[in-house]
Amino acid sequence: MDLKPLITLLAIVNPLAIVPFFIHYTQGFSSEQRRRTIRTAALASFCVIAACALLGLQILEFFNISLQSFQVGGGMLLLISAMNMLNAQPAEAKPHTHELEEGAEKAAAGSSIAVVPLTIPLLTGPASMSTVVIYADRAQTFWQHAALVGYGVVIGLATALCFSLADPIARVLGKTGINVMTRLMGLILAALAVEVMADGLGKLFPILGAR
Questions:
Q1: Which of 1, 70, 99, 164 has its CA 20 to 30 A from that of 32?
Q2: How many C-beta neighbours within 10 Å does residue 26 have?
Q3: What is the count of structural domains for the chain?
């Protein structure tokens, strides 16, 4: 079984890096509200990945977008995400927007923030979605497609576990520990992004692969 898609997704989603956001957004929540938020975020993460695995290629075909172009664009998104992570930012974070403040306002108003912004875009944003679509194209059998959906289950469980243990994780790792983990995952992701872009460019411009 090829675990590269799972490793890539774990590097992008990186629930550990979102733990501080989860703690911030759920300040003042009751235990039941927190548990409901965790369940919703985990389920939403799985649904996004499963939908991209099962329907992503059909959506590309509908818009008449070649997979090679999508690979190059998706690889660029992965590289941007990696740059964010190497600067100790969440992969899908937008440093110059007000997502943090907006999430806090929603929490204060009693609205669910599990789907937006926790799941989309902080956990499963464009980089995650494009990665799943790229690997879905490489899947040749039913079981390979099923494995991609299964990886969505793993991502959902990892999200639920990290959020459930948010307070102990924050105490043990601290901000420095989370930053180190985020940078390490960013380095792995940068290498994977270059590989995805090189593959797409090689198919778009075969002369690049000529020796």
A1: 99
A2: 20
A3: 1
